[in-house]
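Hi R.,

As promised on Friday, here is the backbone we talked about, encoded as structure tokens. Could you run it through your design pipeline when you get a chance and send me back a sequence?
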């Protein structure tokens, strides 16, 4: 279908073509993204317009638009509709009659009041009304009208703008444990800035009660250097990182802690104590890791497993890896998670072991050997997360395009997927180890305190679920 001329061109009216009484209108609905984007562009972060909690206690009891958001619609009409390209704003006088709230539909009309031959200026009356036909902004604007005809071709459609507010996603994750008691958590060797800041933030947010296990002098030195308040937090002195790991695990075994958290030591140091058959935290399940990711460009939470523990898992290992992830999904409120078993292709190929494993896992789910989720595979990554890609390839599946759990073929591929989402797609990430007696917060030494705090949220939810199981409720 060919575009109309109105869609492809911006046409103007010259001074001579404008008549008194001519008018043009524009209608827009104020969305939350409009308020955020206007604040970003102008630097005006007035809490009345950007802070919902503050707005509730203010004059209007709700988030309102910046006054000049409505005023900017006037410039839009003048520059794109009437008179159009070539118009130069000279003067304006506006009265802001009432606030504009999110969801209000504003109609702006500019009407020619007077023309001035000597300088080619035009005076317009302006009126903005809301969906109830009540005035919002009114006034006058004076412009220098175009003196030449312009028919400007639009080169491309207006680009889509997406506001990615990572702090909002972080706060939503923190709200998941609102009202729950903090969980005693042994933190192994928190001896650098981020590994100490994470549990301190989680403590201040009421998520965990950290027990800091490590050389006390180092912990206190880090706290002093970075002004971290560790008053009220228990410290268990340890000689070195290996000792920290052993003592932290022992605190779990004695019941002093209901969760374990990695600090600045290497993963192998902590996990060697966790998997110890004599004094570790094994269960009858295969131990596995899950990255829980909030990706701004995806419409669902994503659980990626296993990208940190099992290097080249067998089919038997993958059964537990899948079941661990499904159980976690239940804990965070997904009753029947959609599980995509990933491979490089979406068809079974005897030469690609991951496609055979995917087919077997799906059949095992059909037979009740894996429960609580909806499995499909093999699926390539694009089919798993894009319904368009799935339809293009003729894949009919309740999982394709809507996956909530991504089961990767091996640690390398999973780690690459997770790190790409974190560093290129600005995903909010949490990392947790499952299949052990208690949840283990396992993050990279390069991860931020926010990532560690988000991981504490997941650990706390699992710990509370374990409490409920233990009480028989």
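Update: got your reply. Pasting your designed sequence below so it's all in one thread:
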């Amino acid at each position: 279908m060919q575009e109309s001329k109105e869609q492809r061109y911006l046409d103007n009216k010259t001074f001579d073509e404008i008549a008194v009484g001519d008018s043009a209108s524009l209608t827009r609905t104020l969305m939350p993204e409009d308020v955020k984007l206007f604040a970003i562009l102008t630097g005006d972060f007035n809490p009345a317009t950007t802070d919902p909690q503050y707005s509730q206690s203010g004059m209007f009891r709700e988030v309102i638009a910046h006054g000049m958001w409505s005023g900017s619609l006037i410039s839009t009409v003048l520059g794109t509709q009437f008179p159009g390209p070539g118009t130069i704003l000279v003067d304006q006088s506006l009265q802001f009659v009432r606030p504009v709230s999110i969801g209000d539909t504003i109609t702006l009309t500019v009407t020619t009041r007077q023309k001035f031959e000597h300088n080619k200026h035009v005076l317009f009356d302006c009126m903005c009304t809301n969906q109830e036909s009540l005035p919002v902004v009114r006034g006058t604007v004076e412009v220098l009208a175009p003196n030449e005809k312009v028919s400007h071709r639009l080169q491309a459609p207006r680009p889509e703008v997406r506001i990615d507010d990572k702090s909002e996603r972080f706060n939503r994750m923190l709200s998941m444990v609102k009202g729950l008691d903090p969980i005693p958590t042994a933190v192994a060797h928190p001896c650098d800035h981020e590994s100490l800041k994470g549990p301190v933030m989680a403590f201040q947010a009421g998520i965990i009660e950290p027990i800091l296990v490590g050389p006390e002098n180092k912990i206190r030195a880090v706290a002093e250097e970075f002004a971290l308040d560790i008053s009220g937090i228990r410290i268990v002195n340890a000689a070195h990182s290996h000792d920290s790991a052993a003592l932290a695990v022992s605190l779990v075994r004695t019941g002093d802690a209901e969760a374990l958290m990695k600090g600045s030591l290497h993963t192998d140091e902590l996990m060697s104590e966790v998997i110890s058959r004599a004094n570790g935290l094994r269960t009858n399940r295969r131990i596995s890791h899950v990255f829980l990711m909030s990706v701004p460009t995806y419409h669902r939470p994503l659980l990626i497993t296993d990208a940190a523990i099992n290097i080249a898992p067998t089919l038997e290992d993958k059964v537990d890896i899948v079941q661990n992830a499904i159980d976690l999904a239940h804990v965070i409120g997904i009753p029947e998670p959609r599980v995509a078993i990933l491979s490089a292709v979406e068809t079974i190929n005897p030469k690609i072991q991951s496609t055979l494993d995917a087919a077997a896992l799906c059949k095992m789910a059909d037979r009740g050997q894996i429960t609580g989720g909806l499995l499909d595979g093999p699926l390539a990554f694009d089919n798993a997360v894009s319904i368009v890609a799935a339809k293009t390839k003729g894949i009919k599946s309740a999982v394709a395009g809507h996956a909530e759990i991504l089961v990767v073929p091996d640690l390398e591929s999973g780690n690459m997927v997770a790190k790409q989402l974190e560093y290129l797609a600005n995903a909010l990430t949490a990392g947790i180890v499952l299949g052990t007696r208690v949840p283990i917060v396992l993050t990279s030494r390069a991860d931020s305190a926010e990532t560690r705090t988000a991981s504490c949220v997941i650990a706390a939810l699992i710990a509370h679920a374990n409490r409920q199981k233990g009480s028989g409720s």
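One thing I noticed while checking it: Residues 1-6, 54-61 have pLDDT under 50 and may be disordered.

Thanks again,
M.
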